[in-house]
Design a protein that fits this description.
The protein is α/β, with parallel strands linked by helices. 41% of the residues lie in helices and 15% in strands. The chain has a 7-stranded parallel β-sheet with strand order 3-2-1-4-5-6-11, with helices on both faces.
Length: 333
Amino acid sequence: MTCALLTGITGQDGSYLTELLLGRGYTVHGIVRRSSTIQRTRLDHLFADKDVYNRRLFLHYADLDDVTTIRRILSKTEPDELYHLAGQSHVGVSFEIPETTCQFTAMGTLKLLEIVRDLEKQPRMLHISSSEIFGRPDESPQNERTPMRPVTPYGIAKTFATQMVTFYRESFNLFACNAICYNHESSRRGESFVTRKITRAAAAIALGKQKDLALGSLDGRRDWGYAPEYVEAMWKMLQQQVASDFVLATGTSHSVEEFLAAAFEAVNLDWRDHVVQDERYMRPSEVSRLVGDPSKANRDLGWTAETTLPQLARLMVESDLASLKSKESIADS
């Protein structure tokens, strides 16, 4: 039975990847931060399954800078595949906590690479990178050879981590690769991210629970995809004969305003009647022209992002509607 170890298992990507791997017959181990909340709603359905939890799914506690404990976990579990998904992943927050972002996103990755380098049984390793490494690129769309020019603390930290993965692959012959992911969303996206903030507000306004939504700039453009499709590509990357980096993207760019319109249209509302712009949500340095060229992933992995932006927004809004109605029912009972 193939064994996988995930950092960031309780996050959006970690939860979907866990489901995918269990569905393929894997044993899955996950590293959880000691400071993490006890509630891990994205994995609750798996914890409740007695045939899965503590039989094929196991959790271990360690912080990314706890080298001794992580080394012990890797030595004990001897995974065939290692998916490194953890790190401070909110771009906006990185402006407020740049040191923490670099400590966990940049140095956490380097420490993990050093541990893997010393292991007798070295797992195939995937690091989840980000389109933020490209910052303000001269070319669009971006591919695996596009120069990295990050303009945010998060992007700078991810660039360091991405280049270190490449360095360890080329210098120490590790099977290590970067999944250069463009924005990918779902109903499991954290509520501090703009897409989830929008879909939750659209649902709440439709139910009469909220009146307005405050946002920053609506002009920013992103290449938005659906998270469950992206973890499928991550798995495919570690099944290749040779380790390589891949851009994972839809290849289509949309503005925040377009996502906003699609979300409110899902509940038959006009966003212009409910949205106000707030200077507090404006970022001091913003990326531009970020849209990925997924042709290498299309060709070598046989992978294509299929969910469109209107479909994605509707999926998220419908999930938020169901969640709010469920909470309302519980409160009334």
